[in-house]
Amino acid sequence: MSIETHQSAATSEPENPININPEPTPPPSPPPPKKRPRRQKKPTNHEDKPTTATPPQNQNQNGIAMPPAIPIASTPTKLLVLSLGNPAPLLHTLHSAGHTVLEAVAEQLGFGAFTAVPRGGSGGGAVSRSEAHPYTLWRGGRAMNESGVGVRARWEAEGGELVVVHDELEVGLGRVVVRKGGGSARGHNGIKSLLAHLPPANRGFVRIAVGIGRPASRESADVAAYVLRKMTAVERRAIEEEAAPLVVKALRELAFGGGS
Fold first, then answer.
1. Which end of the chain has the least Cβ crowding within 10 Å, N or C?
2. What is the DSSP string of 62-83?
3. Dmax of the chain from CA atoms?
4. How many CB atoms lie within 10 A of CB 124?
5. How far is the CA of 112 from the CAs of 90, 130, 223, in angstroms?
6. CA-based Rg of the chain, rounded to a whole angstrom?
7. Does 144 score more than 70 pLDDT?
8. What is the β-pairing status of strands 135-139 and 79-83?
9. Are 210 and 101 in contact (CB under 8 A)?
């Protein structure tokens, strides 16, 4: 089984990627000047009867500020969310960050344990489901450069909108970029394999790129050594605690049209 990594050539950022990373918090604004309270009029006879005021739309009956309502699609979109990576002994390497983040997503959303799927018509790998969410999470079981074979088989057996979670050298560690409508593989051999095996009409799948950063060197041998080494504790924490919540947010927006 051969394992390929990213190409070492630099690539530019995609056209109009969807940014779901948190923006820096702006400095607090100075408090407004205090206003002198107005003297209240003495109620007249027709004002003696108490009235019940209707709270503003952004407050509940107790006067507590409420967040604005989020529009939610009446029927959520079913998603087949699959991760690209390499099997053992290369799990939890930077190149398998897609698998690592998908496991963290399953834990955060309360999914069951991943169950092994037979190869062949079902695509192999491992799957996790939850009745509370319209997502099926599938962790690919083949080497990165052979991903397309299993993905096509799993998608044909499962159905739903295809969402691919993968590592990305050109994105900072722990950051997430969502791309819709296909595009080039950007040097990623797992994406290359998908594009080679999926029918042309099905190549516009959603990609969720999980940033792993990149080494200073652009030499292919140095890049390969970087992506195939085990994550450090700091890197794994960034993937599980920073990237995973952003992937959850992206999945909700894809399934519910704005959140849930």
1. N
2. T--B-PPPPP--SSPPPEEEEE
3. 90
4. 19
5. 23, 7, 35
6. 24
7. yes
8. parallel
9. yes
Q: Which of 97, 101, 100 is nearest to 212 (CA)?
A: 97
User: For 209, which DSSP code?
Assistant: E
Give the integer Cα–Cα distance in Å for 213 and 233. 15
Residue 9 neighbours by CB distance under 10 Å:
10
User: Which range is most confident: 39-48, 97-106, 112-121, 201-210?
Assistant: 97-106
In the residue annotation, 95 being an active-site residue is answered as yes
Give the side-chain half-sphere CA count within 13 A for 96. 22
Reduced to 3 states (helix: H, G, I; strand: E, B; else coil), residue 59 is: strand
Active-site position among 95, 99, 133, 188:
95
Q: How far apart are CA 49 and CA 52, in angstroms?
A: 10
Global pTM reads 0.73
The four Cα atoms 202, 87, 99, 230 give a dihedral, to 10 degrees, of: -140
User: Tokens representing 58?
Assistant: 């952004």
pLDDT digits (tens, 9 = 90+) for 203-240: 889 999 999 999 999 999 999 999 999 999 999 999 99
